[in-house]
Amino acid sequence: MRISTQTIQETGVSNMMLRQTQIHRSQEEISTGLRLLKPSDDPAGMANVLNLNAYITINTRYQQNISAVSLRLGNEDTALESAETVLNRVRELTVTGMNDSYNASDRGAIATEIGELTNALLDVGNAQNDKGEYIFSGSLAKTKPFAFDNSKTPPEISYSGDNFQRKVQIGPDIVMEDGHNGFSVFENIPTADTTVTAATTTTTSTPPADTTSATTATDGTTTASTTPDATATTPTAEATTGADTGTGTDTTTASTTTPATSATATPTRSLFNTLLKLKEIFSGQLSDADFHTATQAALKDLDAGLLSITNTRVEVGAKLSSLEQQNSILGKFILDSKQDLSNLQDADYAATISRFTLQQTALQASQQAYVKVKGLSLFNYL
Amino acid sequence: MAREVYNIASSGLLLAQRALNTTSRNISNSNVEGYSRQRLESDGIPEVERNQGQGSKGNIAGTVTRSFDFFVESQIRTESAAVNATDVYHQLASSIDNVVADPDTNLSSPMSELFSALQGIVTDPSSSAARIDTLDRAEVMTQRFGTLNDQLNTLHDQVNSELKTSVDEINTLAKNIASLNTQIVAASNVPNTSLPNDLMDQRDVMLQHLSEKIDTKVSVGEGGYLSVFVGYGQPLVSGGSYSQLEVTNSDYDPNNKNVMLIRDNVAPSNITDTISGGHMGGVLRFNKEVLNPTQNYLGQMAAGFALAFNAQNSAGIDLNGNAGGNLFTDFTKTLNTKDNWHENTGNTSVAKLDVSFDNSTDNNYRNLVASDYNLVFKEGSYTLTRLSDKTTFPPSADGTFNVDGLNIKLRQDSDPPVLPADGDSYLITPFAHVASDIQVTVKDGSKIAAASPGGSGAADNTNIFALSKLQTVASLANGKYTFQEVYSGMVTWVGGKTRNADIDNQAHQTLLKQMNDQRQSISGVNLDEEASSLLQYQQAYQAAARIIPIANSMFDALLSAVR
Hints:
The structure holds two protein chains of two kinds.
Chain A: H1 5-32, H2 43-97, H3 104-125, E1 146-149, E2 156-159, E3 167-171, E4 174-177, H4 182-187, H5 197-205, H6 221-224, H7 228-238, H8 245-257, H9 271-283, H10 288-345, H11 349-375
Antiparallel strand pairs in A: 1-2, 3-4
Chain B: H1 2-28, E1 38-41, E2 63-66, H2 70-100, H3 108-123, H4 128-188, H5 197-213, E3 217-220, E4 226-230, E5 234-238, E6 241-242, E7 244-249, E8 257-263, E9 266-270, H6 278-314, E10 341-343, E11 353-357, E12 373-378, E13 381-386, E14 391-393, E15 406-410, E16 425-428, H7 434-437, H8 462-468, H9 483-523, H10 527-562
Antiparallel strand pairs in B: 1-2, 3-4, 4-5, 5-6, 7-8, 8-9, 10-16, 11-15, 12-13, 12-16, 13-14
């Protein structure tokens, strides 16, 4: 083929331009450290980069949620531990006081101490977190959950929180309750005392719920009157999913956390009122036989309460350990995502720099070839 | 005899001189754009005997012709149109490509940060810090929507101004080509002269420049006339006459432009959709294939986001115990910022529309489709056409349209409302301004409805939990995609368009380079070749010059023999 002088010129120039474009690209990669700079570099890859970044952001947030929930469960555990101590002391006093060698004045002293211990337990029930929120009041974080109700004779301690238990998201498909409400811990204790059914009925009227265990998604009749609106709103968001497997598992994990407090129709008595009852028994002038019957019954209630507290603590412990597990799963997930992200978008320095060197050599060769070819002219010899 | 020798010698001298002239011109013009190398074609100096008595001096003058291949030239025009179209398409698409995934301008990061902030309220519903954080993030996100839409609007303006510039250049070129046509035909008709090679080169260069602006068809007519066709085959240049292009407002949206071909005595014709090549073709295709769809995708996301959040927040109870309301601009209302519909300029009635987003149970943000719509009133009935796939919809019983999450109805600003006339039509662009209009309308964090109705406790997080679920719930495109997925889908789509344009551009550049090399091979000047021609003709000249003293000495010898 015949080559025109202009073709020689253009070929040389366009070669150099091409090399310079390549060098520019390599330089960009080296200076930014990124291989993927804009979507057109790898359209599907860039979408993955955006998705991975979003995943990392939200999973980091789940980790924050985990530490918040852990802190709260820790607070709760501390409170429950104190409750246990208080109740054990009450139990000890009761058992000791049942000894027939104790006279009325000894029982009176025990009654006084039980009274003080009741106040201590009241403090536990009204425990607040670092933000000043009552930890056992359900959704009514600003309401003091337990207080003396002096309208009753004798005065009782009533619950003014609710059955709500907040759930926090700790993974893409996992939610966890961040504590227990006062109703499930202190109020919903089955009582063996049939003589005080009248008292039980008055107690059951105080909390909004009494029949079933609260906090599960299937509240049943108790909360049905309060939550129908809430259940109506959630489907609007969740109906869209079609297959939102997340919510399905949510309910199961949540329901397993609630101890199977069976007894749909079992009469219950608040732990506080059991203590008040004990104090009443010890300060009263009952015959020995009546005293023993009443104390035995109260002791059963006390044990049921202790069991509830212990069970709750066990549950809190289990939750804390599963949070820890979930935290490390998320950590691994974030690490993997970052690794993926790096594989997708980070420049491979070794490869890029060796390519850069090669491109430099190629440009130099093009330049030299250009100059040499330009020097070849017959006119030089005319 | 001697006279013949003198004649031959002087013919030879003349020929060599003209050849040297041609060579020198080639050398001097070797860098001139579009210059075709010229050659002196001569029949040679005829034999003396055969021409005896005719007093012929041989074909001394010769004819200067240009080395030129019409076929190669027209292929170059075709490739050049394709290269320019893909180049500008790629450049414009890159402006979107550069921003949609950039960490500082993408929508994905502020969106996931907003959801992350929402989790803060989920964990701690009564915390005012978490609420303020959420509103701040929402603000950042709406600003990002606005910035991206501004960028798209700027590109739209650029498209319009590029069209205007291209049309001006095309008009000038058409006029000049027509004028060269006239000159070339006149010069060609002068007897015993070479063709006007330089003028023809000039005309070819202009055709070349024209094909960089718009795809053309060129045909050579009689006597050197040349015709250029554009559009459906309408003549832009025909001999000495030419048409002009004009940019006019489109029938519906004055911000969208049409390209019209204006010819004497003929009604202007709209050639917009037929232009596929050259700078103008690339600009038009970018507008249609990338810019408008991107704006619709972005608008769909903004509208979907606002509608979904408003609906869920309205379903809850805020920190003050009041029912929740809208967090973002309420798109179920007709916004008065700018119309999201345009009437046809040919409409005979003044009937107006109201276009808003429906957010009802069966027709809401989940049903949005990123498309424009066309509404026609004909023979007493309305037809709505979704332009992305040409699906048509009949109106509902009350005469309104409740489809694709939209609510379209006649504006009721008089009683009875003005009805459209037969044949009236409207272009509906529901998403054009949405991304610019979206704003956080709540300034007080306590207005975020975290609790569910009935619950009302400060620690109740039921509703905010449902809000945060919007991150993972596939709520757009009839429940197929999440917001994040729609956005990354858009990024992939824009990236793909940009990359394909680049690949196309490189392919056409390679072809263009090959064709150019071929053309250079035929028409280009090689200086070494010309240098050797210089030597050759110089020697021919010297040799011819030597004939004269030899003839002279021959004559002297003859004379001295006689003497």
